[in-house]
Every structure is written in C-alpha cells, then in structure tokens.
C-alpha cells in the first residue's frame, strides 16, 4: 500500500487518537493473570492490540470485544488466573514487541509447563533481539529453545517461572516490565537488577499498574544499577479500566497541527498519565508552539493547538522517548537553527532503524540531516515532494506523511510525496489517513 500526500495549507477540526498500546497490552495480560472478569474500555483496535488479545486467549482467557464509538474496543476478559490453564502449544504474537516480550515469562506460569509451547512472531519481530529476557527467564527456572539461533522468535518455551535472581539489559524497558508483571505470580521471591535503564516512563507505567493491583515490590538504586525485589505468591484481581489515548500516535497529529496553520483540538489524552511521549507537549511549547492544555469535564485533558507559529531548534534527550524521534525529526526541519535528538541509540532497534530511516528519507526530501550512532541533527530545511520508503515501520511512515504535508515542488515541479509500505500503519493507527483527512490534510491511502 502507499500513502499519497500533497502539500496542505492548514488544518482544522477535533479528533481523538487511538487508545494507548502500552496500557492496552499491560491491561490484557494483567486481566488474564487475574481470576475473575475484568472490563477494559477503549482498548487499541489495531494489529498490536489484536495480537495481545489473541495471545491472551491462547493463554486461557475468554475474551469478547465490541467496537465503540471512538474507534477503540470495549473488552471483557474472564480468566481462571495464574497458574494459567493453557491448552494450546502454539502462540503467535505478530509483530508486537511488547506482547512478545511479556508473553515469554508468563508462559512459565502455566499449569502444564512440562509441555513445550512454541512462541512465533511476524517477520519484523524475528529481527528484534530477545537475548536479555531469554537469559533472565532461564535463570528463573524456565527453559528456552532458540530454534533459529538468533536470540529471537520462534522460541520453544517450557518449565516453571520459579523466581529467584536475574539481571536484564536496561536499554529496552520491555525486558524489565515483562518480569515485573509476571514474577508476582511466581512461587519464590525475586530480585531483578538492571543497569543504565532507558525508557523509564514505561517502567513507571508498569509499576503504576502493580500499585493499582496492590502488588508488593521494593525498588532501590545504587550508582547506575537498580534493584527490584518482587515478592512471590501474589495474585492479581479483576478490574475495570478505561485506556487513555496514545501519546505516541497522537504525536503525529500534534506535529501536524503545530506545523501547519489552523486550529486543532485533541480529546482523550491524559497529561498525568505515565506515558513518556506526553513530553512532546512541553517540548513543543518550549520550541514556540501554541498548545493549550485544559481539563476535560469527564476526565483527561483537551489539547487545543493553534498552528503555524515559528519554532526554534533545541537539544532533546530521547533516552526516555525513542518513539518520538521520527515526529521530532520532521518538526526539526521547520525549527529555526538546528534540532539535536540525542541519546537515541535505542531508536535503532525498533521495527526499523529509525535514526537511519528518518535521516535517509528526509534527505530525499531535501532536509539537512546528520546521524551518529546515537543521535540525529536536523537543520531548518525546505522540503520537497519525493518517493519515499516507509521501511514497513508505522512511526516512520506517519512522520514522513507529516513531512509530505509541508513539502513544496521538486526540481521537476512535482510536489507529491508517495510513501511505500504504508500498510505498516495498521500496527497502531490503522485509520491514520482518515483522521488526517478529517482535519483537511491532502492525503490518500492507495493500493
């Protein structure tokens, strides 16, 4: 599929971004580990959300889902809780990294762990490293067979998650979150050490879920190493939760609204939520954007953006917010001076190498971009339309689409931007093009 984008003069309207992927996946797994019935509202209706639903069904949960009026899913999860009575011997996590990672230790909480279970994934996920979580669960009592010898899926998993001591790499917060969510159900107490923790807001989100579930744990830090003690033999309880809007997906709407003249209002976001990507709001305000944040009458916040204001480049530490790098890179092309996206090495090990993909594709549009191993520097640049590769990465595709709205004519006079592999947006924001069109964007999704 392709996204075809033409320059757009202004944007106007009101929209609601999809539900948070990070909360969606955590909610579904916790509901599966809890004995009883949980009610989840505004679950992400996209490939990653549905992948998590299917994995949780495979782990023994009974799940029903209905589409709601805002485009999300209202879901009921009924489970016998841990230990999970799982009959299947095969799970498929598609290309959802967080679903894959959390599933690995939870597979060790089955009643029939002597029978190996095969965890398979999509082609994209097969290229993402899982060595750290694999090593951790093996020290905690499980057995993992790496079929392709590449530290990734497909994996043959058996044995009990007993608890004990483990160490995980801090460069990807998903490893730690997976253990924090699963180890309370292990029979033994556990101690997990992590060094140089990145993407900290995602861990804080996981801990907030544990707090809401009254799960007991302790946290300490010495030098650059953090220790989490998780007490075993605990139980999750059923709950009712409305999933807040996803700031990662909203970042493309926010970026477009800031960069183009007009007035756009976003609903369904929660500035007090643990999502690290909410920092796009203060970052852009500091750069000069006109973004007003107000409390919504029914909870959450309303963002009102008056676009087209002049922006000034700045230095942004992306250690906690690597998913914002693509949208921030596009914003940098319209900011006076230069914008430096630093401490972003983790952006290279996502669905694609996002430092490379954004540097390569923005350069095709005329942007002045320079990459290092862990950073991206963008000079204020005049963009032109161009054929682009979306690298099958939802975040790269949507960010480049925003760039296309800003682009002028190329040397031949054409001002059209065409982005390939656009089906990648189905991972988290399948109706992205429709939402942008509702604001007045000149964008079409084409076969």
Structure characterization notes:
By secondary structure, the chain is α/β, with parallel strands linked by helices. The protein folds into two domains: 2-18 and 246-446, Alpha-beta prism (UDP-n-acetylglucosamine1-carboxyvinyl-transferase, Chain), CATH 3.65.10.10; 21-231, Alpha-beta prism (UDP-n-acetylglucosamine1-carboxyvinyl-transferase, Chain). Helix content is 28%, strand content 28%. It has twelve helices and 26 strands. The chain has a four-stranded mixed sheet with strand order 24-25-1-26. Strands 2-15-17-16 form a four-stranded mixed sheet, with helices on one face. Strand 16 (290-295) and strand 17 (301-307) form a beta hairpin. Helix 5 runs parallel beside helix 6 and helix 10 (354-364) runs parallel beside helix 11. The longest helix has 13 residues, at 21-33. The radius of gyration is 22 Å and the shape is globular. The model has no long low-confidence stretch (mean pLDDT 96).
């Amino acid at each position: 599929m392709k996204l075809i984008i033409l320059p757009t003069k202004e944007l106007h309207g009101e929209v609601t971004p999809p539900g948070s992927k990070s909360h969606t996946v955590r909610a579904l797994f916790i509901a599966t580990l809890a004995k009883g019935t949980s009610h989840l509202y505004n679950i992400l209706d996209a490939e990653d959300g549905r992948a998590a639903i299917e994995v949780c069904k495979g782990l023994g949960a009974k799940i029903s889902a209905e589409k709601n009026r805002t485009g999300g899913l209202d879901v009921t999860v009924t489970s016998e809780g841990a230990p999970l009575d799982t009959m299947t011997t095969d799970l498929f996590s598609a290309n959802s990294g967080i679903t894959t990672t959390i599933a690995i230790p939870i597979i060790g909480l089955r009643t029939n762990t002597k029978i190996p279970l095969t965890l398979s994934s999509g082609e994209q996920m097969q290229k993402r490293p899982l060595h750290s979580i694999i090593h951790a669960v093996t020290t905690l009592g499980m057995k993992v067979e790496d079929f392709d010898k590449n530290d990734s899926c497909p994996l043959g998993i058996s044995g009990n998650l007993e608890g004990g001591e483990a160490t995980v790499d801090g460069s990807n917060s998903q490893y730690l979150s997976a253990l924090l969510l699963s180890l309370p159900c292990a029979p033994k107490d556990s101690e997990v050490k992590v060094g140089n923790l990145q993407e900290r807001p995602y861990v804080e989100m996981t801990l907030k879920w544990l707090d809401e579930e009254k799960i007991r744990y302790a946290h300490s830090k010495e030098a650059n190493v953090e220790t989490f003690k998780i007490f075993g033999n605990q139980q999750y309880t059923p709950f009712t939760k409305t999933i807040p809007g996803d700031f990662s997906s909203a970042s493309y709407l926010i970026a477009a609204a800031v960069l183009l003249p007009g007035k756009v209002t976003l609903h369904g976001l929660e500035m007090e939520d643990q999502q690290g990507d909410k920092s796009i709001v203060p970052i852009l305000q500091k750069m000069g954007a006109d973004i007003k944040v107000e409390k919504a009458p029914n909870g959450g916040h309303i963002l009102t953006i008056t676009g087209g204001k002049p922006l000034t480049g700045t230095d942004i530490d992306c250690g906690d917010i690597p998913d914002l790098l693509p949208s921030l890179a596009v914003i940098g092309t319209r900011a006076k001076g230069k914008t430096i996206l630093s401490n972003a090495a983790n952006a290279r090990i996502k669905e694609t190498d996002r430092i490379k993909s954004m540097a390569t594709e923005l350069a095709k549009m005329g942007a002045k971009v320079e990459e290092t191993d862990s950073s991206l520097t963008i000079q204020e640049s005049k963009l032109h339309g161009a054929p682009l590769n979306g690298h099958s990465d939802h975040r790269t595709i949507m960010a480049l689409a925003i760039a296309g709205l800003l682009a002028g004519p190329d040397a031949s006079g054409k001002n059209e931007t065409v982005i390939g592999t656009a089906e990648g947006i189905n991972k988290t924001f399948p109706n992205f093009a429709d939402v942008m069109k509702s604001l007045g964007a000149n964008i079409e999704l084409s076969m």
